[in-house]
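quick q for whoever's on today - can somebody do inverse folding on this one?? i tried earlier but teh output was garbage lol. tokens:
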């Protein structure tokens, strides 16, 4: 509790010199009128004097260029916090919950709103205030109880969102008093805004440093935290709330009134949105508009009434459309996170039951995938160089949802319509292969595509041909070769998709050779692969696996493609395979392994497993040894590979999902993966298949513990 022991005269004198604008004196009055037995009757009038001084600075912070705002000083909010204003408002808000008297103090809704608004403005403008509030877990949980009141919901939600954004430890949703009844009391508008808060509580906290994202660090963290994370616990809590997923699906698929033409709505919105930093502000404007509409309907229809009505702020139809877009962004994000969580199968079943994708399909042309304008609109939390307008972000979030929905799950076939499903069946019949059960049993026809996720998993010839017939392979090759794409992220997505599309499919390799029909084109393609093996190694793995399978087939068509395809001929050369193997091992180390580059280790293992099948493993290891000597650095590759394989055992032998992915992507049993690694790590220096047999004693360095550097 703040103490005001300085005399009023001294405060007034110092106030003039320091330009405190009377804030300390106002806080002294507020303190005197908010004692335990007070009825708070005078508090609101005092806050009405303080509030404009702070809101003026908050508006300047929101409307200024973000960098300029960070460099600015906001003396009023600083003074308010310096003299204990933040702590005093927290005490005023929480006092009714702390007093044990039979007759509890009652704080008016208006007073609560004023307290929350001032706290939010102070958090915006004064560094450290938000973090201090976040450290008070009792206050954070108390704020959730204020969300039951519709009149204070928006102010409460805004403050909670900012506090949770900086909180070091994620809150546990189970700790929120009466969470299920709280959520059930929300209308659809409130539930959508609540999703902004939920997003923070169900997403794994970002450590904010790349080195902390290494697999070594993640494994160490998992050893410390044997149980589920708080994010996972919170996800389970949400799924246990009756009707929660159903309501999200209804929100996501709710239609938007589009009486105004959509082609110009973003331009129309520009002048409105330049100062709107938060979707909750949109809610405030919508609420004002609705209240004024209700008031207008009760007024006289005479000329004066019409005049009054015409002078009121009129929100454009486009604002209502934007309002709905912002809602859908929050809802789709929450559904994406839940689809990737531990309860994935349960979520899949629920969103299929509540027909999420058919509902989104109905919005696809008019809302989700319509042509966007060249607006400079920027979303909250994004900088001016970012292209993430709400319009574009909705498209991205929609694709993320489809990716999460399709990834390694048979429900991916529910994305197709009846004509497309019939086409898949026809491809299977023509190739004389059995139809996938999930295709036969599909009874919903959803239209949209997250292509790579659709293909990922157990390789399906029918799925590949379905997409090959639509020219997808040629489109990808055009992007890689003809446009000579330079973006690593984009290239990686092209290579990954190309690998899934071509794997084990002789028709795809034939199409590849028809498109890459000159040495010049082929060299550009190879240059793109070699520019970053981290990005292209999945394609290298696909080519290697496919070549091995084709070489073991006695089909005339396969033999013809093998002899003509530049790509297969290139990879059939031992020197090329050894070059890839050498570089794949050389670009990764245990201390730098991440989810992104660990695939390089698995690709190198695929090359060696195929060599082991042909009893050529000793030859490959001996060649690696010779390549080390050529580089005049004996032992540096094989010692590194030995450490990588030791880590592989530690990482994969405890993760069922990863092992399933390895089996599906390679069509090699996980048992064979484990056996090959064990053989390579054998300590027997007489074994022709053990790595240690190819490292001279003088250069042996294989027993170091894994320590983060």
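ok took a stab at it. sequence:
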């Amino acid at each position: 509790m703040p103490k005001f022991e300085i005399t009023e005269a001294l405060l007034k004198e110092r106030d003039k010199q320091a330009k405190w604008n009377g804030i300390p004196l106002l806080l002294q009055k507020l303190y005197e009128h908010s004692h335990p037995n007070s009825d708070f009757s005078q508090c609101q009038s005092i806050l009405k004097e303080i509030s404009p001084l702070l809101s003026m600075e908050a508006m300047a912070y929101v409307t200024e260029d973000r960098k300029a705002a960070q460099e600015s000083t906001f003396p009023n909010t600083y003074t308010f916090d310096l003299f204990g204003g933040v702590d005093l408002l927290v005490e005023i808000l929480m006092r009714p919950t702390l007093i044990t008297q039979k007759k509890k103090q009652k704080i008016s809704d208006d007073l609560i709103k004023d307290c929350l608004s001032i706290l939010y403005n102070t958090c915006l403008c004064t560094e450290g205030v938000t973090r201090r509030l976040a450290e008070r877990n009792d206050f954070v949980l108390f704020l959730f109880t204020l969300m039951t009141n519709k009149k204070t919901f928006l102010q409460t939600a805004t403050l909670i969102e900012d506090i949770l954004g900086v909180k070091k430890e994620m809150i546990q949703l189970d700790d929120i008093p009466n969470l299920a009844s709280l959520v059930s009391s929300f209308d659809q508008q409130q539930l959508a805004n609540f999703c902004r808060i939920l997003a923070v509580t169900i997403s794994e906290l970002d450590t904010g440093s790349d080195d902390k994202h290494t697999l070594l660090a993640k494994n160490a963290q998992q050893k410390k935290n044997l149980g589920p994370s708080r994010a996972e616990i919170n996800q389970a809590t949400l799924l246990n709330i009756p009707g929660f997923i159903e309501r999200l699906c209804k929100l996501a698929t709710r239609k938007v009134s589009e009486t105004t033409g959509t082609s110009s709505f973003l331009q129309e919105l520009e002048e409105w949105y330049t100062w709107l930093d938060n979707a909750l502000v949109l809610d405030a404007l919508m609420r004002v508009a609705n209240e004024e509409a209700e008031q207008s309907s009760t007024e006289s229809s005479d000329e004066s009434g019409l005049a009054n009505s015409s002078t009121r702020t009129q929100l454009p139809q486009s604002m209502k459309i934007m309002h709905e877009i912002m809602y859908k962004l929050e809802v789709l994000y929450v559904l994406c996170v839940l689809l990737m969580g531990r309860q994935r199968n349960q979520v899949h079943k629920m969103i299929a039951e509540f027909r999420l994708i058919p509902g989104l399909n109905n919005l696809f042309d008019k809302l989700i995938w319509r042509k966007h304008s060249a607006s400079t609109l920027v979303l909250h939390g994004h900088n001016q160089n970012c292209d993430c307008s709400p319009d574009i972000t909705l498209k991205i979030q929609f694709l993320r949802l489809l990716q999460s929905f399709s990834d390694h799950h048979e429900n991916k076939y529910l994305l197709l319509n009846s004509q497309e499903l019939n086409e898949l069946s026809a491809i299977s019949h023509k190739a004389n292969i059995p139809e996938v059960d999930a295709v036969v049993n599909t009874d919903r026809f959803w239209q949209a595509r997250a292509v790579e996720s659709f293909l990922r998993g157990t390789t399906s010839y029918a799925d590949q041909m379905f997409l090959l017939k639509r020219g997808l392979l040629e489109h990808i090759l055009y992007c890689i070769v003809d446009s000579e794409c330079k973006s690593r992220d984009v290239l990686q997505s092209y290579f990954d998709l190309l690998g899934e599309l071509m794997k084990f499919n002789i028709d795809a390799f034939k199409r590849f050779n028809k498109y890459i029909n000159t040495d010049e084109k082929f060299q550009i393609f190879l240059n793109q692969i070699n520019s970053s093996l981290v990005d292209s190694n999945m394609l290298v793995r696909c080519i290697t696996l496919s070549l091995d399978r084709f070489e073991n087939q006695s089909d005339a068509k396969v033999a013809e493609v093998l002899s003509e395809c530049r790509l297969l001929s290139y990879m059939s050369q031992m020197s090329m395979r050894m070059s890839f193997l050498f570089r794949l091992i050389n670009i990764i180390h245990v201390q730098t392994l991440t989810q992104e580059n660990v695939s390089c280790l698995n690709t190198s293992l695929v090359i060696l497993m195929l060599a082991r099948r042909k009893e050529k493993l000793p030859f490959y290891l001996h060649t690696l040894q010779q390549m080390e000597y050529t580089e005049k650095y004996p032992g540096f590759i094989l010692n590194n590979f030995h450490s990588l394989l030791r880590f592989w055992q530690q990482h994969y032998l405890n993760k069922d999902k990863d092992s399933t992915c390895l089996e599906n992507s390679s069509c090699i049993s996980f048992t064979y993966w484990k056996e090959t690694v064990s053989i390579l790590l054998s300590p027997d220096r007489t074994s022709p298949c053990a790595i240690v047999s190819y490292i001279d004693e003088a250069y042996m360095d294989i027993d170091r513990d894994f320590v983060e550097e």
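fwiw The radius of gyration is 31 Å. also DSSP finds 39 helices and no strands in the chain. so keep that in mind when u check it
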